[in-house]
Write a structure and sequence with these properties.
By secondary structure, the protein is of the alpha+beta class. It has 14 helices and 36 strands. The chain has 7 domains: 60 residues, no CATH class; 69 residues, Roll (Ubiquitin-like (UB roll)), CATH 3.10.20; 71 residues, Ubiquitin-like (UB roll) (Roll); 82 residues, Ubiquitin-like (UB roll); 76 residues, Ubiquitin-like (UB roll) (Roll), CATH 3.10.20; 72 residues, membrane protein fhac (Ubiquitin-like (UB roll), Roll); 273 residues, membrane protein fhac: a member of the omp85/tpsb transporter family (Porin), CATH 2.40.160.50. The N and C termini lie far apart (82 Å).
Length: 802
């Protein structure tokens, strides 16, 4: 309805226009005296319209369907189509029911399209559905194939005769055939199919143009004057043929991807105009191929200026000090990306959690130079509001919350700390996923929402066996509860057996039994990482130990208890200190008749007590596989201060340094590790508390405890009163994520003997089955040694669980 009036009801109006439109009826009144009647006419028209609609609806509802027909059916029976549509003669005619019927027909997958039409007759409505059936595959065949039989190709195509055509499956079959041929060296293979014939006759025919079979025998680079072949060959995935190990197939897609990778590498190194292409060259022998990557390096650009835009929080020189890129140096994308992260990190430290940082490169008017502007959108500064934990079903909130060193309401919301908390939560192995997210809309405040996913297993009960060149064959039976709660006592035996008790407190309980050919050990270790909900670590260990040594047998029974403090604020942030008490009964027996006099002097039982103080700092990026940062540990242990049979002191220190030297295209890192270890004994220590070296973990290239001072007719190793170990190791990816190679140099000395050194190579494998299982194989050759040393070219460490 529509109503319009101009100054209706005004005393001075000379002309009033009122119009009422009801169902297309328009009434115009031209006098203000009759304007009021328009309202009554409007209401009357609405009533008439409502009655008409009601009558029409009653009339439509009384119409019945007199006929349901289908056109376009070829392979589908009308009965099937009628049952699917759900329309029957004699039913009331409703348009919505027809729309539903069309949807049902299309959902069967037999029809490409379906529509309907109606014909009104005095006795009712005639409904006709017009459908267009999908073609059905009647046969699958191949033409042009000589390398593979039709039966072999048919097995690769997942299309059954008699089923409606699935165009996705048809194209997938084509791609599968292409892959099969390319894997066999037919890099130029082309496969097509006749779509029109398939739609008309149902015959699916794959037309194959195999092309020649080739093997890549040589990869060359033209135009490379800066990096050389050795550097460039590492950037391409295309490989030459190598008997048994590599097929050397030519794959057009792979080569074109290599072109893009090489171009990206050059541009990352400042050659912003670099162009790369490739060509194929046939070699003298039929089927042999040379792939030549042609490179136009262009100009290597340098940085003309480094500028900041949008920065108000920091002085420009303060941020410039964070940059690794320098004016005058080559433009390198990896450095610029690192600079962007470094600048963003500085803003995150101060609570600018929404700071956006990007680097913009602009070519200078001077040739070969680029101006880099780091643009910053600072946003607002935020403090930590409420810390909320979610996703934990059985683990206590405090176990999650305590890993985030942000405390409301005074702390700024530092996203760097949030990311570090995520890593710490994952490294506990209590959680399989962890995410810290700022949420909320309160000005200046954001909640810290810690969303975690608990690990599937509450604990591990493992049976294992290991073989090492240090300790021989060693069995392993372990009960390891990583999310233990000593106060969550079971209400039934079933709860205990199914790990539904003693769970959720973030503590760790580990029981380990190791029977072996040369070593027997039993340990119980309990750890509370947050004693009294404070950053104080409590450790308790009890153990039994027995091992055959050079010239005697050694047994120990003892216990350790320690308290550790992590410094999370102030000058010593990142450091941790520990005080440990030890009480132990050590026995030296089964001494050889001609063993060294030091061994005979220490024969019998010794009661040892000690107090140990240690200080440590860990700045690595991972506890398990460090790729950057360093670790430092310094400790002093005084024996006999609480009583016992021996009085002496032992000072030890250990330092490890890690740096990533290269990251490949799969984000796998090659890491250099440098390490130093030293120790000195103050006083007279028994032989079983002296320093020894040799074997995996100290000096490869020598047998376990094969380095050190010797004495007696049997030349027994009696250990030294000081130790120096220096080493370097470079690890790099070999296959996948879990197989890495390494080259190393281990050096050192024990006591007053000669300085030793060995160099070697090895492979380290991690098997992810019921936890990471290490396998390590090393070949080492001593280059500096003493005539009494026990050398060992091959050493190994194998751990297996079953």
């Amino acid at each position: 309805m529509w109503y319009s009036a101009r100054r209706c009801g005004a005393l001075r109006a000379r002309k009033v226009l009122c119009a009422v439109r009801v169902l297309g009826l328009k009434v115009t009144l031209s006098d203000k005296r009759v304007c009021g009647w328009s309202v009554y006419m409007l209401l009357a028209g609405a009533c008439v319209h409502f009655l008409a609609i009601t009558a029409g609806a009653q009339e439509a509802g009384s119409i019945t369907i007199t006929s349901v027909e289908f056109t376009g059916l070829v392979r589908t029976s009308p009965e099937f189509a009628r049952d699917v549509a759900g329309m029957a003669v004699g039913e009331k005619y409703q348009r919505r029911a027809l729309d539903v019927a069309v949807s049902r027909l299309l959902r069967t997958g037999r029809f490409l399209a379906a529509t309907y039409s109606i014909e009104e007759r005095p006795e009712g409505v005639r409904v006709t559905f017009e459908v267009h059936e999908r073609p059905v595959v009647s046969s699958v065949s191949f033409t042009g194939n000589t390398k593979f039989s039709g039966a072999r190709l048919r097995d690769k195509v997942s299309i059954a005769d008699g089923q409606p055509v699935d165009w996705f499956a048809v194209r997938d079959g084509r791609d599968t055939i292409v892959t099969l041929y390319r894997d066999e060296g037919y890099g130029d293979v082309e496969v097509s199919f006749d779509r029109q014939r398939l739609e008309q006759t149902g015959e699916l025919i794959y037309n194959i143009e195999e092309g020649p079979r080739v093997r890549i025998r040589e990869i060359a680079f033209e135009g490379d004057t800066t990096f050389g072949r050795g550097e460039l060959i590492k950037r391409v995935e295309t490989k030459t043929s190598l008997w048994i190990f590599r097929t050397g197939v030519f794959d057009t897609d792979r080569v074109e991807s290599d072109v893009a990778r090489l171009r990206g590498y050059y541009r990352d190194q400042g050659f912003l105009d670099a162009r790369v292409s490739y060509r194929r060259e046939a070699m003298e022998k039929a089927g042999d191929l040379r792939v030549v990557f042609t490179i136009v390096e262009g100009t290597q650009y340098a940085i003309e200026a480094l500028e900041f835009r949008g920065v108000t929080v920091f002085a420009p020189e303060e941020l410039t000090a964070q940059l690794s890129s320098k004016v005058g140096e080559t433009v390198k994308r990896i450095q610029i990306d690192g600079d962007v992260r470094a600048v963003r990190s500085r803003f995150w430290e101060l609570g600018y959690i929404y700071a956006a940082v990007r680097a913009v490169q602009v070519f200078s008017d001077r040739p070969g130079l680029v101006r880099i502007t780091i643009e910053v959108e600072e946003g607002d500064q935020y403090r930590v509001g409420r810390v909320k934990v979610q996703g934990n079903t059985r683990t206590k909130d405090k176990v999650v919350r305590r890993e985030l060193n942000l405390f409301p309401p005074d702390d700024l919301f530092d996203l760097n700390e949030a990311q570090a908390a995520e890593r710490r939560l994952l490294e506990t192995r209590i959680f399989s996923a962890a995410r810290v997210t700022p949420r909320g809309d309160e000005p200046g405040v954001r909640e810290a929402v810690i969303d975690v996913t608990e690990a599937e297993r509450a604990g591990d009960f493992l049976f294992g066996v290991g073989v090492t060149s240090n300790s021989g064959l060693v069995g392993n039976v372990v009960l390891d509860l990583r999310n233990f709660d000593i106060f969550d006592t079971p209400r039934s035996l079933t709860e205990f057996v199914k790990f539904k008790s003693f769970y959720g407190g973030g503590q760790r309980l580990r029981l380990e039994l190791q029977p072996g050919t040369e070593l027997n050990r039993f340990r119980i270790d309990f750890t509370e990482p947050y004693l009294f909900d404070k950053p104080i670590r409590f450790d308790l260990s009890m153990y039994l130990f027995e091992r055959g040594r050079d010239g005697y047998n050694e047994r120990r029974v003892g216990a350790n208890v320690s308290l550790g403090k992590r410094f999370e604020h102030g000058r010593f942030v990142g450091w941790s200190g520990e005080i440990a008490l030890r009480i132990e009964a050590a026995t030296v027996d089964d001494v050889d008749l001609f063993a060294a006099s030091d061994i005979h002097d220490d024969e019998g039982q010794h009661l040892l007590t000690s107090v140990k103080l240690s200080l440590a700092r860990d700045r690595t990026d991972s506890r398990f596989f460090a790729t950057t940062g360093d670790r430092l540990h310094v400790g002093y242990e005084q024996f006999g201060v609480l009583g016992g049979d021996d009085f002496f002191g032992q000072l030890t220190t250990r330092y490890q340094w890690y740096r990533t030297l290269k990251t490949d295209l799969l984000e796998r890192k090659s890491v250099l590790q440098l390490r130093a270890e030293g120790g000195v004994i103050v006083g007279e220590a028994p032989v079983f508390e002296r320093f020894y070296a040799g074997g995996t973990g100290t000096m490869r290239g020598f047998e376990f405890r094969g380095v050190g001072p010797r004495d007696g007719i049997d030349e027994n190793n009696i250990g030294g009163d000081f130790l120096v170990l220096l080493g370097a190791e470079y690890t790099y990816p070999l296959i996948g994520e879990n197989i890495r190679g390494h080259v190393f140099m281990d050096t050192g000395m024990v006591g007053s003997g000669a300085y030793r050194a060995a160099i070697g190579i090895g492979v380290r494998i991690t098997v992810d089955a019921l936890g990471p299982i290490p396998l390590e194989f090393n070949f080492a050759a001593p280059v500096l040694s003493d005539s009494d040393d026990e050398e060992q070219v091959f050493s190994f460490l194998i751990g297996g669980l079953f």
